[in-house]
Write a structure and sequence with these properties.
2 copies of one chain form a homodimer. Chain A has 10 helices and 4 strands; from the N terminus they run E-H-E-E-E-H-H-H-H-H-H-H-H-H. By secondary structure, chain A is of the alpha+beta class. Chain A folds into 2 domains: about 80 residues, Glutaredoxin, CATH 3.40.30.10; about 100 residues, Up-down Bundle (Glutathione S-transferase Yfyf (Class Pi), Chain A, domain 2). A 4-stranded mixed β-sheet of chain A has the order 2-1-3-4. In chain A, strand 3 and strand 4 form a beta hairpin. Chains A and B meet through helix 2 and helix 3 of A and helix 2 and helix 3 of B. Chain A: Belongs to the GST superfamily. Omega family. Chain A: This is Glutathione S-transferase omega-2.
């Protein structure tokens, strides 16, 4: 997981027998979704990190779009797009089903994920500047989740343990404290407004699957700053 | 299905016993996806059309985003977003499963739908004008589907009968001839490049 990120001219390490291959980037929130599902369901896998600023040619044979995450099976089949990977893993590996059993609840959770998908775009606008201040939109979308969690009255959206919805939104919540360090004047989130989400965030940090890939705010900040300066340092955590 | 579109000040007709309610708009390609799945699986339903230029207030209680399609169940539960509706229906109603049985094939088909999703946006740009001519992007995306259909060597993407992928992309292919009439100088699709897709369309 903390391996050096491979760039142009590198060789793709051979697949390991009995394991899925996950192509990732250590700081990518979308790739983290795939890690969380693999770790929550304890699916044997290995990880190859991709240097996104200098992608190896062989990677485009796995994902023609060149993005992470992607998974490769021993059969040679490759799947990409974080939510498609998450759903595939839940269907193929029935241990600890992450989606709700009830089809209606599953559909409602997917609608929530759809609503959530505007947040990453708005966070990007917040950092890089845009015509319209996206903070209100972000706060309104967060209101939806605060309301939902309050309604469900459970520790997690998924109930007593995290489910698919919890894991799929987690990567951005993990980065909130880092966002506040990088741009405190822009990233103003009134905690009083999000009591339940705050509790949820602290509880999620204790989850075994979350702990596997968890990166503390200071390191996220280090990565953001290197990325903003145009010289992304993917290998911060490589020993 | 061909009922008057209801706008502000209208009343939502009561739900029919034993039937899902589909909120639609007769010419909306996204809503058409929901119709196709309901009709392919022969799921009992009725249809209420929404006047999108003048939405009734009661509709926002079904879909807070105010878009079609949305479905409402007798329980009062509502679901919206065309692909989420399609997947829900296929899970809930096992007759004539539209998604491939193999999880890998299902994932690959969903990736193709993801690729396809750029086409509606590009068609819009084509009609309304934009900085970059989107025609090449549209043709490149269509190439992907032509190649896939050729590879599968079946009548439909789904095999001998249409599957989820066929139905989910169909509404835009149905409209191609109309696009060509509306803007023949912009909508230039070389048929030779898309032999298989042309055949499938018939």
């Amino acid at each position: 997981m903390n391996e050096k990120h491979l760039g142009k001219g590198s060789t793709n390490p051979p697949l390991s027998k009995g394991k899925l291959r996950l192509y990732s980037m250590r700081f990518c929130p979308y790739a983290q979704r795939a890690h969380l599902v693999l770790d929550a369901k304890k699916i044997p896998h290995d990880v190859v990190n991709i240097k996104l600023s200098d992608k190896p040619d062989w990677y485009f044979e796995r994902n023609p779009l060149g993005k992470v995450p992607a998974i490769e099976m021993e059969s040679g089949d490759c799947i990409y797009e974080s939510l498609i990977i998450a759903d595939y893993l839940d269907e193929k590996y029935p241990q600890r089903l992450l989606h709700p059993k009830d089809p209606i609840q599953k559909a409602k959770d997917r609608i929530l994920v759809e609503h959530f998908s505007k947040i990453p775009t708005n966070v990007y606008k917040l950092f890089h500047g845009s015509d319209i201040d996206p903070l209100d939109d972000i706060l309104t979308d967060l209101d939806l989740f605060e309301k939902e969690l309050t309604l469900r009255a459970t520790r997690f959206f998924g109930g007593d343990v995290p489910g698919m919805l919890d894991y799929v939104i987690w990567p951005w919540f993990e980065r909130i404290d880092a966002f506040k360090i990088v741009a405190p004047e822009k990233f103003v989130i009134p905690s009083e407004r999000y009591k339940k989400l705050k509790e949820w965030k602290e509880t999620m940090k204790e989850d075994d699957a979350v702990k596997v890939t968890y990166i503390k705010p200071e390191i996220h900040v280090q990565f953001f700053n290197s990325y903003k300066s145009g010289n992304a340092n993917y290998d911060i955590l490589v020993k």
